[in-house]
Structure formats: structure tokens, C-alpha cells
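[Solved] Which block belongs to which protein?

Original post:
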Amino acid sequence: MDLGLTDKVALVTGGSSGIGLAIAARLAAEGCKVAIAGRQKAKLDKAVADVPGARGFAADVSDAAQVARLIDEVIAAFDRIDIVVSNAGTHLPGRLEDVETGALARHLDTKVLGPWELAKRVAPHMRKQGGGRFIVIIGQAGKVPQANGIASTISNAAQHAFVKSLSDDLARDNILVNAVCPSRIKSPLTHALGTLHNEVYLGRSLEQQETRWGAEVPLGRWGTPDDIANAVAFLASERARFIVGANIDVDGGHQRMIF
């Protein structure tokens, strides 16, 4: 199926590894001109080498000045931005007594103020060119509050509210705002979390823990970053032109909410 993405310009933040890199690669395969943003130059250079035709842009989305520069640099390089994928893949574990207020503030800078600044900077350009797509990757804690992930629950829930409000604000300009919500996806982020996924470590290996996690998914397995990339490519495409303000779970049926 032709998704109508040939020659569209896509900016993927947090695009140098894991889910972000898979999204960048999928959009490039669909014909997009891809700008990959990341904080670490070595990882960014490798990502650009792995994605044909992609260009790398060093930026930390928690810094408003760097976000402004990022948008300006991508516009200068490609003349436009048609698609933004906000994918700041961070998770801040811990209960209330474990999380310092400063750590929460930095987390919110990345997960909430980063997408906010991206939208503020890119919306005028998309408005001028007649539309665009703004897609936010939001972790499961935003829908399933967790005592041992209270900071991520706060930030991810705020992202959901942001996506819905922003979609109302920009839809009349044909700027379609949506979210993709991963759960039980194998990635560098989930690997680094080890046994923190609401599990008690009882001497089992990570592989043994993951076997139990997979059993909790109706499909019986974990997903891959490519599964998220497929959903993003669809939402970015002309085939999704009447989808706005939605959040699409890509989780093998794991999350239990009915709406």
C-alpha cells in the first residue's frame, strides 16, 4: 500500500537508537527525507550511517534554545518539515520517596516541555505549507499509573493531555496530532530497566523475567521497535488523514483499558 510519504521531510527526535531509530529507518524506506536528532554524537553518527539518506542533528530536546535551533537547522537543510515524531525515550523509576524533585523537573523538561517546544517551533512552518503531522511516542505509564514509576506516570499522562489539546488547536490547519503508545517492546530502554517493570527480583535471570512478561501479553510475546515504526508510518501517511487526537496502543493486547 502506497502511504504517500515520498519526499516528505520527517524529523525524529531521540532517533539514534531503539524505537526512534526504527521509526527513522521505516520513514526513510517509505521515501521520506529523514532528519535524526539525538544528544550523543557517536550514536547519532552511527544512526545516520544505518539509515540511507538520513542527516543527523545534535540536540537535547529538554533545552528550549536547542529545540529552536534544531527546527531552524532542519528547515535550512530541507526547506520544510512535514512530519515530527517526538520520541524522547526516558523513564524515571522509583516511588515518591525515591525521586528527587530536581530529577522530576528534568524529566518533565524532556517529556513534556520538549514536545511543547517542538510543537511551538514547527507549527508556524506547517501552517504556512498547508499542514503536517505531529506524533508523540508515549509510554504505558500514562494510561496505567504505577507506584514505582510515579514520575513517568505524571509525565506520560501530561503528554496524553497535551496531544489531545494540541490536536484540537491545530486540526483546522491540517496539522494532525496523534500518539503511539508502546508497551512490552524490546528496546535498549526496556533492557536497561532490567527487572523494574513492576516485578520483584527473586534470583531469576532477565530472560526468565521476560518469559513471564511475554506470558502476560495476549499475543504471547514482546514486540519490536519495528512494530512501533509501522504504526508511526501509518499515522504520518495520507491513509490516516481523518485520524486526529488519537492514541494508538501497540502492545500485543497487553494494556487493559477499554478507552
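(Second protein starts here: sequence line, then its C-alpha cells.)
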Amino acid sequence: MNLIGKIFVVLIFVMSLVFMSFAVAVYGTHQNWKTAATATKAKLDNSQKMLAQAEDEKKKLEADIAEEAIAKRQALAKLESEKDELQLQRDALTKQRDELMVKDKAAVAALDTAQQNLAKLTSEVEGLRGDIRDSQADRDKNFDQVVKLTDQTHQAQGELKRLQERQVQLAGQVAAANNVLSAHGLNKDMPVDGLPPQVRGKVLAINQDNMIEISLGKDDGLRQGHTLEIFRGSKYLGRVEILHTDTDRAVAKILAGFKKGAIQKGDDVATRFKVG
């Protein structure tokens, strides 16, 4: 119940007392006036006292109403102040929102540009990757060629070294041959009538058809038709005729008319300078 309701209740209570007093007074007119007057006076005094209390209560309620009104005005002023502050905050937030929307639009535009650049860069990267793969394939191919050429170079160098050593060996043999020719009153420009140079080697293999392989060849000066002597230590075994020559190998047949024993692998082969 609010303050105004309380005031009305008090007023109703007071009026009830007043009407009750009137009713009592009317009822008292049928009795002794003096007794009635005394009773009425007492009731009137009581009513006045109650009215005074009601007035005091009314003043108190009015004071409370006034205080409550002041509190309401103060609260309203405070609410107005808070409303103004909230309004300012709302305006600031609205401004901030507008700024953020502008920034968001700029960010979206920047993102679109970045995505376009990314797509372009991705395409370029794919192209570069293809170029790199092609370059790697070419590099691997070139590397294989380099390795192959390096192997060939090493082989050629090894062959060159072998030939150089063979050249030195042959030069020594030529020098020795020249010395032998000189000792017999001959020289290298004189015809030798099919005689082989002075050489010495080994029998490498022999078959059932009286064919043998020896460790001498073209590099030693042997040619088809040359004849060589076969021996083992001081034992003469026979003569062979060269049929085919390679660089350092030759195939010869055993001449039956000169065979003096069984020829074996490892037997010595030498040039015959004098036929006898």
C-alpha cells in the first residue's frame, strides 16, 4: 500500500469515528441531556484527540510524501544524467561502428586484392615449379652425360696411359731390335723377307686341331705368315705359323713337319733369326 492509500484509510477511519459520534449523539437525545452531553463531550474530546492524532499522522505522511517526491526527483535527475551519459556512449559506439564498417569494407577490398594476387602468384609458382622440374630433368640428363663422359675420359686416360707405356715398351724393343740389327750388319730399312722381329712370349692355349694362342700380337710386330719356335727350357718342341693377329694376341697353327714333342700351355715362344 502506497502513501496515498494510507492517507485515505486514515481519513476513512476518522470520518467513521465522527459519524459514529453523531450517531451516539442522536441516540443520546432520547436520554438525559446532561448525561448525554457529558458522554458526548467525552466522546468529542476523544474524537478531537483522535483527529489530532490523525492530523499528526497526516502531516507525517505528507512529510514522507514530500521526502519521497524529493527522492524521486533526485532519482529522476540521476536517471536523466545516466540517460545523457548512455546517449553519449551510444553516439560514441555508433561512430565507432561506422568507422569499423568503413575499415571492414576496406579490409574486404584488401582481402579480395590479396586473393587475386595470391591466385596470380600461385599460377606463377606452378609455372616456376614446372620450369624447375624441367631444369632438374635437364640437369639430371646433363649430369648423366657428364658422368658418362667422365667415365669415357677416365677410360681414355687409362687407355692413353697404357698406350704410352706400350709406346715406351715398344721404343725399348725397337731400340733393342736396332741393336740386334746393327750387330748383324742390318738396319731397320732393309727388307727381312718375311722374318718376324725378335720377340719372346708364352703359349696361352692349345686345342685339338693343333691351333695355339700366344701372348704376342700386332703391337709386337707379328704378321700373318710369320713363323715362331716353340720350346720348353732347352727342349725344342716345334714351329708354328701365324694365322691371325690382334693387338696383344695371335693365333698360330703347329707345323707338323717341325713338331718334336707335345706343346702345352705355358711353353715359350721365340723368333727364329736363322733357318737351320
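Accepted answer:
You had them paired correctly. Confirming on the second one: Confidence is low (pLDDT under 50) at residues 189-193.
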